[in-house]
Amino acid sequence: MSETEPTGNGWRRPRVGHFIGGDWTESASGRSYLNRSPWSGETLSEVAAGDVEDADRAVTAAHSAFDGWAGTLPHRRQRVFLRAADILERRHDEVLAALAAETGCGRVFGGVQLDFATRLLRQAAQLAYRPAGELLPSDVEGTRAMAVRRPVGVVAAIAPWNASLTLAGRAIIGPLALGNTVVLKPSEDAPHTGGALWAEILHEAGLPAGALNVVTHAPGEAGGIGDALLSSPLVKRINFTGSTATGRRLAEKAGRHLKRMVLQLSGQNPLIVAGDADLDYAVNAATYGAFVHQGQVCMCARRVYVERPLAEEFAERFAARAAALPTGDPSDPATVVGPVINEWALALLDRRVREAVELGARVLAGGVPRPPCYPATVLADVPDEAEIAQGETFGPVVVLETVDSAERAVARANTSDLGLVASVITGDRSRGLRLASSLDVGIVHVNDQPVNDEPHMPFGGVKDTGWGRFGLEFAAEEFCELQWITVRDQDRDFPL
Ligand code: ADP
Hints:
Elements: E1 2-6, E2 12-16, E3 18-20, E4 23-25, E5 32-36, E6 43-48, H1 52-70, H2 74-90, H3 92-103, H4 107-124, E7 133-136, E8 143-151, E9 154-158, H5 164-177, E10 181-185, H6 192-204, E11 212-214, H7 222-231, E12 235-241, H8 244-256, E13 260-264, E14 269-273, H9 279-291, E15 301-307, H10 308-323, H11 343-358, E16 362-365, E17 377-380, E18 397-403, H12 406-414, E19 418-419, E20 421-425, H13 429-438, E21 443-446, E22 462-463, E23 466-467, H14 472-479, E24 480-488
Parallel strand pairs: 2-6, 9-10, 9-12, 10-11, 12-13, 14-15, 14-20, 15-18, 17-18, 20-21
Antiparallel strand pairs: 1-2, 3-4, 5-6, 7-8, 8-24, 13-23, 16-17, 19-22
């Protein structure tokens, strides 16, 4: 069940159960945990602490629902997604408040998430009418050959907390719209906005029982459910959004079961400012790109490279902007930097910034925790061996580096093991395009900052950022099987 009780601040406190076969249900074990707000510490919801048994029930329900949903007429399938978009719009203010309470997500990024999720649903509605394959010429006389795209069956979706609404949404909506059924495992830090909420909305919109199932679990207990989803022969595909460390472990296990995955993992995204860039624009772009949602977006700029002629002035203005960003309560519309997700994340940021400083980095802005927030922080002269210069540090900390040329910045950026997104700001668009094509990443934005997504675009990375692409136009490649069918309208000769 997902019961709600008014708490007087616009946000209703849910009791979050699993959603299996169209019903809200407790864990088989009867266990639950309390999910708390990262800002206030208040208990937001009591959440079912699921396990293997619950995952198995969800997979069975999804499997049972598959034939019915895959065979549902296109206009009925389409209507579910159009209705769901209307419901999400109707619940706009409440969802915004829930995102702030559950994940510390402020008004700006909350708005980005709601806008994306609504467009995702409306665009997904048209997938029901997507051509289901192609006729292919054959060299065998009297043969009609075709490539027929058909849904795979049960898709498992493992989603993170940070952009809970959109990242759970894109993990389930494309697969569902193509006729698959889904088991969603949200993050323990976002069981409502990244899980139960989607079940409520799609259920109200008329999605048949069992087409979407949601299984939640207590902190630190994802492994059992993850293993159950990976090893079940009924689960045909997995999509995972999260850290490279977890994704690598899951991919190793998936390999054992020869199971295909879409993996969207960590990024260490460069923003390159060329010497001919408009300084004000570049500072504004870097401020948004590094600090939106307190740097807890996989696309956030982690490294800003500035060509030498602009470097000093850029550093001064960028640091001043960062230092002035309002920090605090995510439900206050003026707040830009809200709380980080939990104490562990705060401690990690603090440790990595201190380590960089010990190794010689200069703090141009921020650098001292303000629990439960970490302020927008700009570091310069960070040595390559510092942890913060490597891998992904999820939070509002950015490394600033002066370079002799943007080409040098590209070479520096390409040494990273990660390759999600990059951006380049320059007055010369042709040069921007040349730089874009030499960047070893899945996505590049010229004259923008890196935090961008649209539901139909090919979203994903290269190298240790994973493989496969989210995006409705590309979902069919990931979540459908292509079947080659031939029909002979005359007998043929056999050599034996
Ligand atoms: P983040 O640092 O963003 O939380 P994680 O990779 O730890 O990144 O988490 C992303 C998602 O992966 C969450 O839903 C989390 O519960 C899940 N997860 C973590 N460990 C496992 C695991 N062993 N098996 C399956 N899912 C896991």
